[in-house]
Amino acid sequence: MLQAAPPTIPIAAAKAALADEIAAAQMLDFDLAGDLGLFARVLRRAEGGTHVLAIFVTSIAVTIANMLAQVRLNEWNGQFFDAVGHKDLSAFVHFIWTFLVIIAVLLTLTVAQTFLQERLKFRLREWLARHLLVEWLKPMRVYQLSFAGRYGRNPDQRIQEDTRLLGDYTADLGCGAVYSLLQIVAFVGVLWVLSAQVIFRVAGYDIAIPGYMVWCALAYALIGSGLTLLVGRPLIALNGERYAREAEFRFALVRVNESGESIALHGGEKDEHRHLEAALAAVVDTMRRISTSLAQLTWITSGTGWLSLVVPILVAAPAYFGGDLTLGGLIMVAGAFAQVQGAMRWFVDNFSRLADWRAAIHRVARFREALDELPAIEEGAEEIKHALHPDGHLAFEGVRILLPDGHIVIEDASVSVMPGERVLIVGETGGGKSTLFRAVAGLWPWGSGTILTPKPESMAFLPQRPYLPLGTLRNALTYPGAPGAFSDAEVRQALERCDLSNLIGKLDQVDRWDKELSLGEQERLAFARVLLHKPGWVFLDEATAALDEDSQGRVMSLFNDELKNTTVLSIGHRPDLAAYHTRTLQLVHGANGDRLRLKPEAAPPLRRRWLQRLGDWLGST
User: Fold this and answer.
1) How far, in Å, CA of 552 to CA of 557, rounded?
2) Whole-model pTM?
3) Closest CA to 165 of 61, 239, 273
4) CA distances from residue 514 to 67, 142, 482, 485 in whole angstroms, order as listed
5) What pLDDT digit, counting tens, does each position of 9-52 carry?
6) Per residue in 505-551, pLDDT tens?
7) N or C: which end of the chain has fewer CB within 10 A?
8) C-alpha separations of 241 from 27, 41, 288 in Å
9) Contact (CB, 8 A) for 493 and 477
């Protein structure tokens, strides 16, 4: 028997504590470079990533062409207004036709750019959602993710909502950032050259400052960006908090909706209303703080936006009124200044969206990391080993089962179950029977020792509450197999054998069967599913708790008739279950945890013992 060892805290518990510390810090320690590096690595390896990159590269090529057309339009501006200033009618008409050609090209490029950007949005979301689904639905991960701390919660929001936000914002902001960078590259040169026309006359001297308009645009953009960063920085953490609160509120609503019957039976509507009000209040409070921060940020973004209409005219006005700068030259300088300054202040205009995007990429990256680290979640801690039994038996060799916090649930389990046996495991409530059930299935790694099992495809597990997937009743019955894996005759026979003949006409009906069927019907449907798949080993965890004695007897008789070669290992409390099993194992409470032992046969009543002794005495004489 294993000696009790000091409890070991697995890595999962440490990760949960670390995640809570991150949340307490309001997620201000974001590592943007690390998160983007993670997605770049995934993009290279995951299916569909090349297609996303191809769309992005094509979009950049179209953006470059668009930018060249913008430069030509700015040149046209100067030429056109010079023609207007000189009252040159023929030049005026010529530049009108030139304008129509430029606009036709720009319109085509803008439509192509919009089309590619929208395609990039949904392709990026499709790639990311599919990738997360593949990783999330790997064996055991859905269950084990619940032990991964804060970032393992609400996977539905990570895969549905956050991938949508990340796809939309990445496409919009990514293309916008590239466009702004190209604007700077294209128009800084233009503005630098045009700055040579901005000459100031002071005390009879001509003064030209190289790149004067470029420096003015840079200074204006830096002032606006600095003020935006100073005022808008809290939005990053607030947006992350908002989505966390929204997920909690949505989960609370779904939970109330799923538990409507129990709430009604307890008369708990007022209590549920209080809890939902608290969750809603947390959402509203976060949104209130976001609205305050956005209002403060608007002073900067809108103010710099309105001022940008006159700032280029103001800084170039002295050269126009006192120098040789023409009206067309002034318009060109103002246009190039607006382009450069607009590109430089892109950060100002998009700060709130950048904060939202930053929070979304942080949540998805942490979720992806949590999925990656699940296989090593027990590194450094005791772990139950699994192996195939050479003879196809089930054997527990010194198995000790722990809770994630290191508490010992089962101190020692060392038994063997042979093929064809009917074994019942009993014990006190909370003694670890269901945990042992999960350990056999490979869901529960915390502990030590070795579990030798038959081949996984020969085993079927029936938990306390049957799982019925979305879709048709036929799909629920044949799960996890395909709906067409069994003939109509087999399906009908299975339903009839489990007293579910009334459901035959609903086989191809789509419904929420976990809501439509009573718990007893769901349990019988689970046995009908076993009858179809005919596994060699069946593990039952209180699988008949909702059935009366007659119904229980009919479904358990399957193992004497159609499934007579199937090995059964049951967990249950009902005394009448013992009649369907050949031996009983009992979890015996010890000082450091329960031990799995063969349950001794109950002593016969006093009168039977007296008669037995009399018979033994007569037989000896």
Assistant:
1) 8
2) 0.63
3) 239
4) 57, 20, 19, 22
5) 232 333 333 333 334 334 444 577 777 777 777 767 767 677 88
6) 999 999 889 888 999 999 999 999 999 999 999 999 989 988 988 99
7) C
8) 8, 27, 12
9) no
